């Protein structure tokens, strides 16, 4: 089927065109990338394309001083000093993280070390190897066996009342037809 014979065309004529099977597509390698090591595509991944609903991540070699605020979930594995504000999002303090900051978020999960006050609209979890030195304000709290905690806990019932009122309103709202 395939032949190694070249057509009888004079040298210097148009370049040889390759025939591809209809099921195969040509494999192009960008010239600029030849001979270079593979680059991580994490920075180029569109928002929401990462698996398991993950948001932003501060790696273990990063050290941040100042204020962090945003509108996506955040995983911290490095060192942070300052203020972290993620009003309607989840903050996860990784096992290798050292955070010296006040934290405001919807949900906070601590696997590492936190020194500062935590305020979560929904819940705060301190995992078995986690350590928190500061005051907690939240609607729900979970502290696993083996976790370290020093501070006070204030249970904020307003968040529970708001979510219960919203759920009640959704259940009792009249059904409406949607037009597309």
Task: Compile the SSE list and pairings.
Layout: E1 56-58, E2 63-69, E3 74-76, E4 79-93, E5 98-110, E6 113-115, E7 118-126, E8 131-133, E9 136-143, E10 148-150, E11 153-155, H1 157-172
Account of the 3D structure:
The chain is mainly beta and 180 residues long. It has a domain at 54-154. 9% of the residues lie in helices and 39% in strands. The protein has one helix and eleven strands; from the N terminus they run E-E-E-E-E-E-E-E-E-E-E-H. Residues 24-52 have low confidence and may be disordered.
Number of helices: 1
Low-confidence stretches: 24-52
How helical, in percent, are the residues? under 10%
Shape: globular
Mean pLDDT: 77
Structural class: mainly beta
Cα radius of gyration in angstroms? 27 Å
Strand content: 35-45%
- Give the N-to-C terminal Cα separation: 54 Å
What profile does the largest beta sheet have? Answer: 11 strands, parallel
Find the count of extended strands (DSSP E, 2+ residues). 11
Which series of helices and strands comes N to C? EEEEEEEEEEEH
Put the structure in a nutshell:
By secondary structure, the protein is mainly β. It has one helix and eleven strands.
């Amino acid at each position: 089927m395939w032949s190694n014979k070249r057509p009888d065309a004079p040298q210097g004529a148009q370049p040889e065109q390759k025939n591809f099977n209809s099921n195969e597509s040509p494999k192009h390698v960008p010239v600029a990338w030849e001979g270079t090591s593979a680059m991580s595509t994490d920075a180029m991944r569109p928002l929401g394309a990462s698996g398991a609903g993950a948001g932003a991540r501060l790696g273990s070699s990063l050290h941040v001083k100042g204020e962090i605020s945003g509108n996506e979930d955040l995983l911290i594995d490095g060192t942070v000093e300052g203020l972290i504000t993620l009003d309607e999002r989840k903050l996860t303090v990784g096992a290798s993280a050292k955070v010296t900051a006040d934290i405001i978020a919807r949900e906070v999960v601590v696997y590492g070390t936190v020194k500062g006050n935590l305020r979560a609209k929904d819940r705060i979890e301190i995992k078995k190897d986690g350590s928190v030195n500061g005051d907690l304000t939240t609607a729900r709290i979970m502290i696993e066996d083996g976790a370290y905690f020093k501070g006070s806990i204030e249970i904020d019932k307003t968040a529970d009342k708001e979510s219960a009122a919203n759920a009640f309103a959704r259940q009792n709202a009249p059904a409406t037809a949607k037009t597309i």
